[in-house]
Amino acid sequence: MTDMPPKLAEIVDEFASAPREVVLEMLLEFADAVPPLPADLAGHEGMEQVPECQTAFFLKAVVQPDDTVVAHFDCPPEAPTTWAFAGILAEGLAGASTGEILAVPDDLYARMGLAQAISPLRVRGGTAILARLKRQVAAQATPVETE
């Protein structure tokens, strides 16, 4: 899967090849992969809510001067599946450039085989998180000059 950062491609391949009965367990392991919010985002100041999620979910993507992206995620602790979606993105996109993030396929969670393990509503929520993350990155990305 060359259309995404190597770490994310590795995560997708692990899920896609895993037996169906362990996919949910694997997913929930990512719930702990989300770094805590920095103090300046406490109270979700400057973060965007993702209304498609069943639970209150907030995100903020910041494009750094070196064109890498730092993403911040937050939701209630009693939403482990939603945390897991964020954890997959946090781990899989760590250090990724704007171009790499914008190239992540929109059907990421379907490629992982999650539709067989969790409800379509939850998959839609995860897909919405990715879409909003990509939209924020695109809004901050510096256009590449062509000659």
Automatic annotation (TrEMBL):
Residues of the Fe-S metabolism associated domain: 13-136
Record Pfam families: SufE
Matches recorded under InterPro entries: Fe-S_metab-assoc_dom (IPR003808)
TM spans (from-to): none
PANTHER family membership: SUFE-LIKE PROTEIN 2, CHLOROPLASTIC, SULFUR ACCEPTOR PROTEIN CSDE
Similarity comment: Belongs to the SufE family.
Name the UniProt record assigns to this protein: Cysteine desulfuration protein SufE
Phylogenetic placement of the source organism: Bacteria, Bacillati, Actinomycetota, Actinomycetes, Micromonosporales
